[in-house]
Every structure is written in C-alpha cells, then in structure tokens.
Write a structure and sequence with these properties.
The protein is an alpha+beta fold. The chain is built from eight helices and twelve strands. It folds into three domains: 145 residues, 2-Layer Sandwich (Beta-Lactamase), CATH 3.30.450.20; 86 residues, Helix Hairpins; 143 residues, 2-Layer Sandwich (Heat Shock Protein 90), CATH 3.30.565. The longest helix has 52 residues.
C-alpha cells in the first residue's frame, strides 16, 4: 500500500469511504422502505379486518366476499372458535387453523399481528391480524391475512437498484476522486520538479506557488521561505569562510616572513629574540582568532557551553578595568568604573569578562579619551555599558556593527572584525542582547543587557 503512488492511495481511500457511505445509505433506504411497507401492510390488514368483522357480526360467510373484501391468491380470512376449530375460511385455506394455541389464546382478548412462513394453499410468507369478534352471544377469533409477496418484490427492486446503481456510482465517484486528486497534487508535483532542479548554485530559484490560498500554496510559501533561509545561511557561511581565510592569511604570512628572514642569514641574539617575539605575537593573534571562530561556530550550532553562577556586576566591571589599566597608562588614557546600583546576574563569569574585555579593547582601539564601564538597572534587567570619548560609530555602521568581520574602517588591518560579533554571541547565549549607539556627549556607547539573577537578594 505504501509503495503505491499518493494519487492512487488517495483514490483508494476515497473509494473505500464512498463504498461505506453508499452501503450505509442503501441500508438506511432499504430499512426505511421495508418499515414503510410493513406499516402500510398493517394498515391494510386493520382496514380489511374492520370490514370482514362487520360481515361476520351480520352472520355473513367469508366465502361470499367474492374478492371484494379478500383478494384471491393474495389475501385470506379465517374464523376460529376459542378452542381453534375453523368455523369459516376463504379458499384455499380450508379447515387448517392458522394460529398456534398461544397466539389463539392471546387473540381471544387482544388484537395480535402474526407472521407465518407459509399459508396452506398459498405457500408464501404471510402476515396476519387476529382479533376477537362476537356473533350473537358467541365469541370467535377472526384472522385476516395477506401474503408479503408484493412487499418482497418491492424490496427486491430496491435492492437490485442499489446493487446495480451502487457499484456504478462508486466507479464514477472513484474516477472523479482520481481526477480531483491529480488536480490537487499537480501543484505539488510542479514544486517537486522545480525543487529537483535547485542546487547550491541556484538557490535563488523558488518553487512555483499556486494562487489558491490553500494548504498547498502555504506549503509552497513555507518551502520558499526555507530556501531563502538556506540561501542566506549558505551566503553567510561562504562570507564567513572567505573572511576567516583573509583574517588568517595576514598573520600567517607575517609569521612565515619573519621566520624566513630569521633563517636567511646569521643573526645576533637580540635579532633572533625580536624575531621570535614577533612570531609569538602573530601566533597569539592566530590563537585568538581561532578561539573566536570556534565560539562563533558553536553559537551557529546552538551549543555555546555556559557555566552559570550568580555574578556581582560591580566585581566583573572592576576586574575588566583592572586588566586594561596598564594599557591605559601606556597610551596616556584612563579607565574608570561606575558600578551604579548593586546588581547580580546569572551568567558565565569568564564569558562575561571576555565580552566586556572586547568592548573595552574596541574602545581603546577605535575610540579616544577616558573609557568608562558602568551598570544600571533598566526594565528589570541589568545593562553593562562601555563608553569612550572618541568620534563614535560612522553613519550607517551601527546596523551591522555586530556582524562577523565587520569593520568601521575597511583599511583597518589590526582588528579581526570579530570583537563585537563575539559580544553578540555571548549575549545571545545568556538570552540577553547587545546594542551599540553614539552617546549624546560624544563617543561610542556599547552595552549588554542581561536578566537579573532572581535567586539573589534584592538590594
């Protein structure tokens, strides 16, 4: 069954459902007609019983009806005493009692319908009405009956109509279902053929979507949206690989050049130490880039490892500022901390310090003046800001400042363009956000928003 084409499977299911519907409808019609015929037959027997009982009460003979009250060959009548003796009967019943003793006893006091498989002389199924009657002072039981042949013929005609018309209707309905299934699946087949032609080099193509605004059209729209996401992801991956290759090429080329120069001729101890120191710096830069790329790759797969713990925001700000104070003294700048209200967040302390360190490093590299680390409570969350007094972000750069390998100045070869991307990744891993803006007083303002630790006491 599962190997059959979907169109044929749908047709078979539809045919089975139609067969059940037709069978159920046929049974209901047949039962309704049978019930109506039985009711009509019972009414005819009651009417005939009234006429015949009137004849009996006037001492009339059942033989004298002459077909007026009792039709020969179809209906019959019989008059019985209380002990079952036949007093009078129509042809060809003769003097055989039509009622069993139990039915005779009940019919002596109540009207009773009785079905009989065969009636003497007629040999057909019959339905009889037995009722008590009085002729003078004597009590009798009058039996009026008729064969059920006409009803049987009518029911057989109804059954034949269903046996002939039912399969014909089923075949026509199945053909209609097959055609409708084909029409319904035609857009899906068109989408399948187009999807088979789409490859990594043609992800700009889209599946044909019918204008029916139904489930099939919504499926096509969803698949096209998926293709758009795949194309965007593949484009980001290609750009990521190209940018990563570019970023790794420069320090590797410098490292190779420095080592080749160190080996080209005999050098003094100081020259060798300088070459090794430069090579170590390039190696350190390569290591940082590799770590950043690994973190971004894990973020793409949704599995950045976190070791959450309650973290005092003021301690983190002070630790990061302390790490950059020697650099600030060398560059003639300063680093200050404005912790604000006491705040505690649930975070991975090492990753949080890495994110803030990237922000401070960017402030030193691209900004000017004093670098300030601050924290504030806003809308039930903690915002950790890093501000500088430089020129701020160029116009239009804020929209993609957190994208990997994005730089405010394309000619800047010192940075990898991964700093803010790492900040965004760490913020996302903590279900937080990272934002950047130009401060009103001048300079850049970059911050991370994290949820406060609900288990920590409220200050």
């Amino acid at each position: 069954m599962t190997r059959l084409p979907l169109r044929l499977r749908l047709t078979l299911v539809f045919a089975l459902a139609m067969a059940l519907v037709l069978a159920g409808a046929g049974w209901l019609v047949y039962a309704h007609v049978a019930s109506d015929l039985k009711g009509s037959l019972d009414q005819q027997l009651r009417s005939r019983a009234q006429d015949v009982s009137a004849l009996v009460r006037r001492d009339g003979s059942l033989q004298s009806t002459g077909g007026g009250l009792v039709e020969r060959g179809e209906s019959f009548a019989e008059l019985l005493t209380a002990n079952g003796t036949v007093v009078d009967a129509t042809d060809p019943i003769g003097h055989v009692s039509l009622l069993a003793r139990a039915n005779l006893a009940r019919a002596s006091t109540h009207t009773l319908f009785v079905d009989r498989e065969s009636v003497p002389g007629l040999n057909e199924n019959a339905r009889m009405l037995a009722l008590p009657v009085k002729r003078g002072q004597r009590r009798f039981v009058l039996v009026v009956g008729t064969t059920k042949e006409n009803n049987a013929e009518t029911l057989q005609s109804v059954l034949n109509a269903f046996l002939i018309g039912g399969p014909l209707a089923l075949v026509l309905a199945s053909l209609a279902g097959y055609v409708l299934a084909g029409a319904a699946l035609r857009p899906i087949e068109a989408m399948r053929r187009r999807a088979a032609d789409i490859s990594a080099s043609s992800l700009d193509d889209r599946l044909p979507v019918p204008s029916t605004q139904d489930e099939v059209s919504r499926l096509g729209e969803t698949l096209n949206e998926m293709l758009t996401r795949i194309a965007d992801g593949l484009e980001r991956e290609r750009r990521f690989v190209a940018d990563a290759s570019h970023e790794l090429r420069t320090p590797l080329a410098l490292l190779k050049t420095e080592l080749e120069l160190a080996l080209r001729r005999a050098r003094s101890r100081e020259e060798l130490e300088a070459a090794i120191r430069a090579a170590a710096q390039d190696t350190e830069r390569l290591s940082r880039i590799a770590d950043d790329l690994l973190l971004l790759a894990r973020a793409e797969q949704g599995r950045v490892p976190l070791r959450r713990e309650p973290v005092d925001v003021a301690d983190v700000l002070e630790a990061v500022a302390e790490r950059f104070r020697p650099r600030a003294e060398l560059e003639g700048r300063s680093v200050s901390v404005d912790p604000g209200d006491p705040l505690v967040v649930s975070a991975d302390r090492l990753l949080l310090e890495q994110a803030l360190g990237n922000l401070v490093d960017n402030a030193f590299h691209h900004g000017a003046g004093e670098v300030t680390l601050s924290a504030e409570r806003r809308n039930g969350s903690a915002e950790l800001h890093v501000l500088d007094r430089g020129n701020g972000f160029p116009t239009g750069f804020l929209h993609h400042a957190f994208e990997p390998f994005s730089r405010a100045q394309k000619a800047d070869a010192d940075g990898s363009g991964l700093g803010l991307a790492i900040v965004q990744t760490i913020a996302d891993a903590h279900e937080g956000t990272a934002r950047a803006a130009n401060a009103e007083r001048g300079g850049a303002d970059v911050w991370i928003t994290l949820a406060l630790d609900g288990s920590a006491p409220v200050p």
